Amino acid sequence: MYCSKECMDQAHKQYHRYECGVLRDCWRIVGLFVKGMVGLRTVATAFASFDQDLEGWNDHLNTLDETKVNAFTVDWNKATVSDIYDTVHVLATNQKRRSRKDLAELIFFASIVHRLLLERTDFGPLCESSQTRSKLLFDLLLRHVQISLINKKRVLHMEREEDDEEEEDNYFGFGDSVDEAKKINHSEQTHAIAVYPLSSMLNHSCVPNVAPINLLDGRCAYIAGRPIAAGEQLFDLYDVSSINYHWSLRKYCLKRTFFFKCHCAACQQNVHVTLDSVVRADPNYTLLLRVLDKVEHKIPFLVQYLNHAKRHYPKHYLMATELLLPHAFRMRHGYCKDDDIRNPIREVDDTGLVATLSRILLASQI
Fold first, then answer.
1. Distance between CA atoms of 267 and 315, rounded to whole angstroms?
2. How does pLDDT run across 74-87, given as a tens digit for each residue?
3. Which of 288, 290, 320, 321 is nearest to 307 (CA)?
4. How far is it, in rounded angstroms, from Cα 32 to Cα 52?
């Protein structure tokens, strides 16, 4: 589904004409490699950006010095299409760390996609007379499938829902309430998967000090959730945090998916906490939020609260206020009422972060 014919034509020109004939079968076989589908989209988009010239693309890669490609030093205002692609091309694949079984499965998947592309798209005529082009296409598919599995990021949108005031999971008003009988809640929903070359440079911590904000124009911004000293490393979150994830599960997931052992404070001391305990440890902020009726009023309050001179930041988990700050920014900068997504089949059972925190706090006071 596209917002306009212009958007549809642009997508078809950029990448969709190369993937359209294979997507259905890819989804049938993709299984655990669903996030690897971003790799197919990357190859299709890059091919179009190199003017459908596989040999030119190959020549470019043969002369590329990967040691000199750094997403932090790229001038993104002046970057060319090939400059942008280079920052994705050099991202980690972890191919040498994969087991033989994992690598064999990835090669099998890339082989099927490669065969389908040759049979059903414009890649066929380009590669049938050249083994070099065919091998380049396969190598790029295998590379970018692995890159997408390691570097993918969830793209969130804010879904607006109304809760009856009389319901048990009453919402405390973290958002705009138009009708006193209805309370507006915004829950974070994943609507896409993307690879951002700059944010992919951030390492993981189960207690991160920054959080991503997906903007409406497609960019991804980051905000600081706690004080960061000059020269201190920025840490993002790779799917699992010290809240509600047991330390053994975190270590397994990170090792299995990203092939590293986490050395954050929470993992070093085998700590995990529940969301319930986080809210009970810092309950006053939720009560104070009830007197602020708009998100643009709540953000300055949350920032001031976090910047309090004597504020103590736990090493092993994020405070409830730290969880709410990015949620507030996503409401402010990542929500458009014209883009509300309603699924009539799914019951409204995900009441969002703030409502969850509020219910926990309410239960702790009974």
1. 11
2. 999 999 989 999 99
3. 321
4. 30
User: Under 8 Å CB-to-CB from 258, ≥6 apart: which residues?
Assistant: 94, 150, 204, 238
Cβ–Cβ under 8 Å, residues 26 and 37:
yes
**Spatial contact of 26 and 40, defined as CB atoms under 8 Å apart:** yes
Q: Which residue bears the tokens 């085998």?
A: 270
Q: What is the dihedral of CA 81, 83, 87, 88, to 10 degrees?
A: 30
Mean per-residue pLDDT over the chain, rounded: 81
80: Cα separation from own chain's centroid: 24
- The kind and range of the H/E element at 106 are helix 100-120
Is the pLDDT assigned to residue 115 strictly greater than 70?
yes
Cβ proximity of 183 and 358 under 8 Å: no
Dist CA 85 CA 60 (whole Å): 11
Q: Would strands 235-236 and 220-224 be described as parallel, antiparallel, or unpaired?
A: unpaired
Tokens 């414009």 locate to: 122
Count other Cβ atoms within 10 Å, centred on residue 94: 15
Q: What is the DSSP letter of 15?
A: I
The residues pairing with 243 across neighbouring beta strands, listed in sequence order, are: 273
